[in-house]
């Protein structure tokens, strides 16, 4: 019988190689991981997966990170949110302000390429 995961990470990033990188790191930290490459798949996976942590890329074709943040706010998501961008850090800063204004938990911002230790630190459990 597989162990029940208390840490579940849902990722939305349109770069499959980056999604695999996040998955490998998160699984080594004890997470169950679901990686999606576009917003519709993220939304479809969300309810059944019940993530405790979410990683969202800001710039994606179709539905972008801001749209997903607004959708998460409508769901009243309690998951920790990590926003990642490979473009100007302003995208992540504005998304953080939007997320917190909409009532989501405070977010972590990371910039691509994400260094291994920074990703591990962002995925570390919150202090009690």
UniProtKB/TrEMBL annotation:
Q: Which keywords are on file for this protein?
A: Phosphoprotein
Fetch the CDD domains from UniProt: REC
| SUPFAM superfamilies the UniProt entry points to | CheY-like
Biological process (GO) annotations held by this record are: phosphorelay signal transduction system
Q: Which residues cross the membrane?
A: none
- Keyword hit for Phosphoprotein: yes
Q: Which Gene3D superfamilies match?
A: 3.40.50.2300
Q: Where are the 4-aspartylphosphate modifications?
A: 57
Supply the InterPro entries for this chain.
Bact_response_regulator, CheY-like_superfamily, Sig_transdc_resp-reg_receiver
Q: Which residues form the Response regulatory domain?
A: 8-127
Q: Mind telling me what this protein is named?
A: Response regulator
